[in-house]
Design a protein that fits this description.
With 373 residues, this protein is α+β, with helices and mostly antiparallel strands. The protein has helices at residues 2-37, 55-63, 98-104, 121-127, 172-177, 183-189, 208-218, 227-230, 232-270, 272-280, 285-321, 338-372; strands spanning 41-45, 51-52, 67-80, 83-92, 105-108, 116-120, 138-143, 157-168, 178-181, 196-197, 199-203, 222-226, 325-327, 330-331. It folds into 2 domains: 2-33 and 234-372, no CATH class; 39-230, no CATH class. It contains 12 helices and 14 strands.
Amino acid sequence: MSVLALLGIVFSAAAMIIVLSGFSGLKNYSLEFLSYASPELEISSKKGKRFVFNENMKSVLSESNLDYVKCISERAVMSINGGKKIVSIKSLDENFPKRNIDSILYAGSWPKKGEEVVVGWGLAYDLGVSLNNYENPINFFVPVPGKGQAFQAKDLYSSRTAVSSGIFNLNEELNNNLVYADFLFAQKLFEMKKNEINSIEVYGSVSEKTTEGLKSLLGNDFYVKTKLEQNEILYKMLKTEELAVFLIFSLIVVVALFNMFGALIMIFLEKKSNLKTLSVLGLTKEKIGVLFTFQGLYITVFGCFGGLVLGSILLSLQNYFSILNLAPNLPYPVSFELKNFLLTFIIVVIVGAIVSYSVSMLIRKNFTKSLQQ
């Protein structure tokens, strides 16, 4: 029975560390792609969607030694091959880092002239967008703010045509809803003034001190959001999912350790005659209780170490040989993180200690009565 209890702990601990490491791998994989599209800081106006980028703002950013990118981000209707979809158009000026472009670009090239865009992989598939197809361009439509009575349909909206010079791949949501466009193209489409933009994005490492200094210099008229604040909902969702996974597999560990409860009781019943002899020789029920506590802890600790070793071996095999794949040529990502190993060890040992102590208390309470039977 003790061997079965030990194996139960080994496999439950191994399952827990494998699932936690797999979830960490998926989380890091998702955030890695998101980091290429999300800047370290995003500066936007509190008074409206648009603001004028003036010399004062330029000097503030230059004094802070920040690599910034001017950004236009609006929504428009995209139409091609008879299909239509409302999309987010994001246009970044020539300072957008090349390393970010190389990381997100799946095929083709980044827009180099006014009438070119880069669409998401999912959007290209849904609407049948092909690269550099000048015979079948993409049409974009944007409602024009009302300035009186409109006499023609064309007065109700602004429109531009463009071809797809490339396709990007980030995550499912962005792939299906985002279009990167040339900066001048977006200015004309949304009828924006020369220095009018929606936000300023800062790329590269930024210290907390620099962030606070920037907020102070820009004043109360602007938001300065960190990467965490820009993607607050996503981070909260990942944290919630991680907690749910941890609680589910903690329950599995609890069930496995209750097998140890039964195993310790069976050991007590099997060794009843030996314990009776030891009792006659002067061994107290308190010491016998301590004996079973240590027996339970011994099974728990060795089982946990065995499970962590087994889990590490299986995770290493996945890393080196890609046994499981999310898609062709895309192995399931796993991440070795110390916190996952510590969480697994702590939960197994704590629950094991509680179970061992419970058995010890039960044996102490019924020791004399059990030996008389």
